[in-house]
Amino acid sequence: MNAIEVNGLRKEFKAYSSRPGLSGAFRDLFTRNYKIVPAVNDINFTVKQGEMVGYIGENGAGKSTTIKMLTGILTPTSGQVMVNGMNPHKERERFVQTIGVVFGQRSQLWWDIAVQESFRLLKKVYKVSDADYNEHMDHVIKTLDIEPLLDKPVRKLSLGQRMRCELAAALIHNPPLLFLDEPTIGLDVLVKLKIREFLKEINEKYNTTILLTTHDLTDIEALCERVIMLDEGNIIYDGALRSLKEKWGEGKEISFEFLERAELARLQTLTEDLGAKWEMDEKDQIFTALTGDDDEVISQVIARTVAAYKVRDVKINEPSTEEIIRNIYEKGMMHHG
Question: SMART domains this protein is in (predicted)?
Fold first, then answer.
């Protein structure tokens, strides 16, 4: 069963330009010059029930626009959207019963009333029975550790506290599908970990589908096996996070700290036939060989270096997901052109 099906989805905005001077301003009153700018450019993807998918891209890549179309806030310019077997825009009433949404930037809690009053109102809105609410929400409240916050008004909460309450609020009706737009923005590490653990748990327990947009790639690594990557309104990658790393994570770095003075030129000559490139950090006297992913080559580089110099320390680093994604944005466009 597919939770989300998107075909040829497109959203265009009109970008108006103003004409200079007073006469220009006057003419603008009657006719405006504008050009059509696509925010989302004929994209296709499907998400199966129970998948956790990371939706990533730089600001302005079209992530929020997509989420707004998937949640029925915006109408597509063209293309089809099916979410939980419904058209989000047309079957509004029935549709909102089946999704949970957390926008890092926008609250669904009432500012001046106690958190649990907000929960009660939402429980009514979603027509959740007492039994269902108690069974499900007791668990949510405990796991997110928000019991002590329930009788506080939202305006008295810190950002981390509020986000945990937002997440709980989005789950009052235990929806099969959860949209999270930047849910951990500005949160400290412990809160992030708590939220991640919790999301994993509800995904395992209820097979909840989760679509997550975030700047924080550690969120994605911790939660999602699949990523969809957007650039300028186009999908440039859709697949396993693992293969993304294999495809773009160019090789390994082997860093050496020597007990004696070493020369860059000599290291270069030592490993020339292996295709290793050496760099040196003047300040800490750390020499780094950049190699491919071939284990044989890596062990050769280490063996020869250790034979030539006395070594204090060796580290093998893989490029982080952050670096890989920066790599893709810098080089990737050429390949997709």
Answer: AAA
Domains and CATH numbers, the chain: 2-246 (3.40.50.300), 251-318 (3.30.70.1150)
Helix (H, G, I), strand (E, B) or coil at 153: strand
Sequence letter at residue 85: G
Cβ 305 vs Cβ 311: under 8 Å: yes
Question: What pTM, to 2 d.p., does this model score?
Answer: 0.75
Give the alpha-carbon dihedral of 94, 95, 101, 106, to 10 degrees: -80
Q: Which residue has the tokens 């109408």?
A: 75
- CB atoms near residue 255 (< 10 Å): 16
- Give the helix ranges, DSSP H, for the chain: 21-30, 63-70, 92-96, 115-125, 130-144, 159-170, 189-206, 217-223, 241-248, 264-270, 295-308, 321-336
Q: Please give the C-alpha separations between residue 173 and each of 100, 133, 149, 198, 312, in angstroms, as whole numbers.
A: 8, 8, 20, 16, 58
SS3 of 99, please? strand
218-277: per-residue pLDDT in tens? 888 889 989 998 888 999 889 988 777 766 666 788 999 999 888 889 999 988 888 888
- Residue 9 CA to residue 182 CA, distance in Å, equals 22
Interatomic CA distance for residues 291 and 268, integer angstroms: 12
